[in-house]
Write a structure and sequence with these properties.
Blueprint lengths: L12 H20 L4 H22 L6 H9 L9 H19 L7 H11 L20 E4 L5 E6 L7 H18 L4 H15 L6 H15 L10 H7 L1 H12 L10 H30 L3 H13 L4 H8 L3 H13 L3 E4 L6 E4 L1
Antiparallel strand pairs: 1-2, 3-4
Helix pairs in contact: 1-11, 2-3, 2-4, 2-9, 4-8, 5-8, 6-7, 7-8, 7-11, 9-11, 10-11, 13-14
Protein name: Fic family protein
InterPro entries: Fido (IPR003812), Fido-like_dom_sf (IPR036597), Fido_containing (IPR040198), WH-like_DNA-bd_sf (IPR036388), WH_DNA-bd_sf (IPR036390)
GO molecular function: ATP binding
């Protein structure tokens, strides 16, 4: 694992096909993502809950998505009863930081250590080692649904070798992304599997690897990333995830690393993430396409002005109050609009 060599990576037709489709979606996102800011926020909220729930459950947490959502709604309370809640809060805040500031977070060892500290900021048991590379061995274990360890997946790098291996990995990744000799998605795949093989921190490596993958995706222009959960895709194929990691990681220290199993899993997961978002967007657009012209005009007005009233639409369209009332009622019923205020002061915003 001293020197990273991706020369043994076999770029098959399937890998090329997956990359081409993901990149095509990346290019089309601007057109596809022309949803109202409120809809985008709603998509991001759902994806964020899925990501946080899945990423912490992969590591043995028991919190459901609805429990995660409840916790996120009360994050400001900053009082977390269980270790699971502490982990979720730390992951949530770090994800938000990545979404807000990815342009200002380059891939450096300092930032990686800082993000590790942030992920575990609420975790009492990790207080001593957060933000620092490991000082004792930490082999990777697999857990079942009940949180019981079901075996060692992989023997990781020794603490003594970790700083040097991390320096090499970060240098290689940045160099590979700058020179563009390898497609950025392949570079990210090599980075993630090598990072997890090193397992540089005492705890939190899995969560951090997924946060760093999100950071690299955003930095490489995959701006749709926050709106669809990659972690949820991985959780749904957890056995495949561990198997692909194990198959590649057992060869990483040899002269001929076999990147294939992991890279294929990684690209399929990214493709699945993209497909899920594509489906959601199609649903959004089809929903709108099925609406009558008058309803579309009401929504358009709400989108442009942030709000809409019945009176405004009567003046704008010349349509009778009763007809418009019917349209407003259906739009509220189908959650396109939300009614605010009471009596004469009633107004509507996008749902």
């Amino acid at each position: 694992m001293d020197m990273i060599t991706a020369d043994t990576l076999n770029i098959t037709h399937e890998l090329l096909g997956l990359i081409a489709e993901i990149d095509e979606f990346k290019g089309a996102w601007k057109a596809l993502g022309s949803l109202a800011p409120e809809r985008l926020l709603a998509l991001r909220w759902v994806a964020t809950i899925e990501s946080i729930g899945s990423s912490t459950r992969i590591e043995g947490s028991k919190l459901s998505d609805s429990a995660v959502e409840k916790l996120l709604a009360n994050l400001s309370i900053r009082s977390f009863a269980t270790r699971d809640e502490q982990e979720v809060a730390g992951y949530a805040e770090t994800m938000e930081q990545i979404f807000q500031s990815w342009e200002h977070i380059p891939l450096t060892e300092n930032y990686i250590r800082q993000l590790h500290r942030d992920v575990l900021r609420h975790s009492d048991k990790d207080e001593r080692h957060r933000g620092n590379y490991k000082t004792s061995p930490n082999n990777v274990a697999a857990f079942d649904e009940k949180g019981q360890q079901i075996g060692i997946v992989f023997e990781t790098a020794a603490p003594f070798d970790t700083p040097r291996l991390m320096r090499d990995l970060v240098e290689w990744t940045n160099h590979a992304l700058e020179t563009k000799k390898l497609h950025p998605l392949l570079v990210m795949g090599v980075f993630a599997v090598t990072f997890l093989a090193i397992h540089p921190f005492q705890d939190g490596n899995g969560r951090l690897s997924r946060i760093l993958t999100t950071l690299l995706l955003l930095r490489c222009g995959y701006s749709y990333t926050p709106y669809s959960s990659l972690e949820s895709v991985i959780e749904n194929s957890k056995e495949g995830y561990y198997l692909a990691l194990r198959q590649t990681q057992t060869t990483i220290r040899t002269e001929n690393p076999n990147w294939q199993p992991w890279i294929l899993f990684f690209l399929r997961a990214l493709h699945q993430q993209m497909k899920r978002l594509e489906k959601k967007l199609e649903k959004e657009h089809l929903l709108l396409a099925a609406l009558p012209e008058l309803s579309l005009r009401i929504l358009e007005h709400a989108r442009e002005h942030g709000r809409v009233t019945l009176k405004e639409m009567v003046i704008l369209t010349g349509v009778s109050r009763n007809t418009l009332k019917d349209h407003f009622r259906k739009l509220v019923q189908n959650r396109h609009l939300v009614m605010q205020g009471q009596g004469r002061g009633v107004w509507y915003r996008l749902g």
